# Entry
Amino acid sequence: MSDAAPGVAIRAVAARVVHAVRTRGRTLDDALGEYEATVSLRDRPLLRALAFGTVRWWLRLAACTQVLLTRPLRPRDAILADLLAVGLFQLIYLRIPARAAVHATVAATAVLERPHARGLVNALLRRFQREGESLLAGLDTQAAVRHACPDWLVAQLEADWPEHHEALLVAANAAPPMWLRVNRRLGERDAYLERLRAAGLEATRHPEAPEALCLAEPTDVERLPGWAQGAVSVQDAAAQLAAGLLAPGPGHRVLDACAAPGGKTAHLLETTPDLAEMVALDISASRLAELEHGLARLNLRSSVLCGDARDPQDWWDGRPFDRILLDAPCSATGVIRRHPDIKLLRQVSDLDALAVLQADMLEALWGLLAPGGRLLYATCSVLRRENQAQIVAFLQRHPEAALVPGNGSISAPGRQIMTGETNMDGFYYACLQHSSMTS
# Structure
């Protein structure tokens, strides 16, 4: 992308990625996909570390920048805020020698076509080296700055979980673990654990998810024994609980609504190979293509439909389902440690629209369930409004719906998994049964 030294160019690309997230509303994955090809394969891990880390801690880094600047940046120089954040992230969080980090970040001003800002960037980073400890001590008295979390989310977590909110904020900034799901069709978990060890990879079991293994250190999937043959997939342990909670049986017709990218669809097929039919539904054709690619690697088959879960008349054939999984669109506040861009992209105003969407999907899909069938409502949120409150309201509207035994109480239905609980992502599940019949 330029004649600059690789370390300098990587800082410039990282600033562009962060800028795309911050000002264009791009997800981190999309922004990295746009710019990653401009750096070598060898340098991509550093680029990802800089981009993810800077976005994860953006609100704290931006607060530092605001104090350091004597006057606001000009609008045409807005990307300098992202470059300064990349520089500050290195000084605070990475083990890169400070001199090298400052030099490369300052030199990146030329790559970003802002050579006039070289002195400014250098002066601010040098000042932070001298005053950073006291500067952060003053700023960190605010929870939103200390945890680099938007004010609205700090307030919501404190209101919902007064005894747990601080732990949730800490967990949201932790490095996410790499969980594997062993394909039961091709072998047992303990046998695969031995294959990992033979390949020099250590892992531990999960106490609840029977196919789950957590790697001691994340690795490229190509290093995983049997990856190409479908022996294993990457899926958080919390997401793996869905198959056991839904508990489909032989001959059941199962719908996975909002199925893409397909992890739960695949897990249901792996654990219950004698289903009558699995139907995977999603509104996104491109994400369904990803689902089909994943099923092909695992040698699994499902009916795949592109449609809106709120409008069954456009895709449903009229035959009821014995089991329905609704992995509802949500705030994703339980997976911020994996997707730190949520901190910058999600707004408190989004919760109103999401609550309406979740309720509409529940209503539409409930009518597709056979008598005695089960619907599992799931989100990757830790907010009560999307979880317990949604199910309480649904049960009030539907006297024929009942919680499956062991799924909480009427006033506090379902199970809330807190981010970091047994190293899992934040998730919510509530399993509902149609009428008093068993299935």
